[in-house]
């Protein structure tokens, strides 16, 4: 009995040591894991971190924060233009490192060396992500009980994303119209020309600064910044005022001269843009060159697509918005074509009776039959009863009855032309028709009376433009 009591006394300390060791090993191998949600916005104060397995009690210590965004895009699509702002604020940023990733298979603080980033000296780390995203934030830090780290989330509405979406959609819809608008080319080229003239004047004026010719290019690049540009403009205005005073022009004339110089600069830039459009954009007949219009339309479409993709931080939402805008573009294009066709056929419907009469007078063929009654129809049209509905109905019935098969009309066998033969045949027949037209004295009198309305296209211009138009519409399709 004393022996068993002695064994029991030896067994109890062994069990206590084993339990303590297991708890310590468990605490070392499992870092602290916290979950932060984006909705509603949350703020979490990180507890004291635990050391990694094998790192000893001296560190490094690790804490993992799991960031969970909104669960579903379909059930909650109202955050299309929003962003989730994640902040980490530390009281003692020295030695604190962060790893921001989305790979859940990587263990706590097991990121690659290139993924770790140091906490800024200000103690505030901030990142903007999609409200529907899922991310992991690992903290690695030395042992410091006085360190305090707070992780918070906040949803923010981004107005410029709305502007990107609206401008991108408008540009995509009107891309074809802008590419063929002469006003668009003149306005854009004149605006660019004005800025170019101002930049050239600034660049030439900065050569007069006491900085040497070698660094003038760098100063010109820095002048795009608002502060540097303001400084140089102030410097140039002071220099110009001193020059005008030395010439003998009073200070009362400085403002009118400045306004006059500004107007001259604007006109020079506008003329530069106008000249560029005339030389590079317009064709010989005054319309926009087809190649230029084709390139500009696709450039506008690409820019609009990029702007739409930038309208949301969520990639799936941005891609869905792009598809939505493409569908709207296609529908608008189809609606525009249908309205034009409806307008054309609506205007041509008023001539429907004329075409029906014409087909009846010329013996329209139906199922191998030739309708007669041309002379009787002509006489009836000249009679005062031609306008009455009853007479028209009886006349149409008479025409339908007096129909018979043709016995003297023969249709020659048709021969298929190749493309070259068809073009040659068309060219030859057109020449014959033009010779007959020009030999007519009535046409000569009409041409003399309407000489100001006749214009001659450049050789091959009409054919090439129509051919390029067909190729363009065939390639663009709905666009």
Explain what you see.
This protein is α+β, with helices and mostly antiparallel strands. Among the domains are: 26-157, Jelly Rolls (Sandwich), CATH 2.60.120; 182-287, no CATH class. It has 15 helices and 13 strands. The strands form 3 sheets. Strands 1, 3, 4, 6, 7 and 9 form a 6-stranded mixed beta sheet that branches. A 4-stranded antiparallel beta sheet has the order 2-10-5-8, with no helix packed on it. Strands 11-12-13 form a 3-stranded antiparallel beta sheet. A hairpin with a 2-residue loop joins strand 11 (365-366) and strand 12 (369-371). Helix 2 (159-173) packs parallel to helix 9 (315-348) and helix 4 (182-206) crosses helix 7. The radius of gyration is 42 Å and the shape is flat. It starts with a helix and ends with a helix. Residues 15-30, 354-396 and 473-479 have low confidence and may be disordered.
* Beta-strand share of residues: 5-15%
Percent helix range:
40-55%
| DSSP helical segment count | 15
SSE run: HEEEEEEEEEEHHHHHHHHHEEHHEHHH
Number of strands: 13
Largest β-sheet summary: 6 strands, mixed
Using the coordinates shown, work out and report the CATH topology of the domain at 26-157. Jelly Rolls
The CATH architecture of the domain at 26-157? Sandwich
Shape: flat
Mean pLDDT: 71
The first-level CATH class of the domain at 26-157 is given as Mainly Beta
**N-C termini distance:** 99 Å
Q: What gyration radius follows from the Cα positions, in whole Å?
A: 42 Å
- Secondary-structure-based class equals alpha+beta
The residue ranges in which pLDDT falls below 50 over 5 or more consecutive positions are 15-30, 354-396, 473-479
Oligomeric description of these chains = single chain
Biased composition (Basic and acidic residues): 366-380
Signal peptide: 1-25
Main location: nucleus
Transmembrane segments: 157-178, 184-205, 217-237, 257-277, 292-309, 315-332
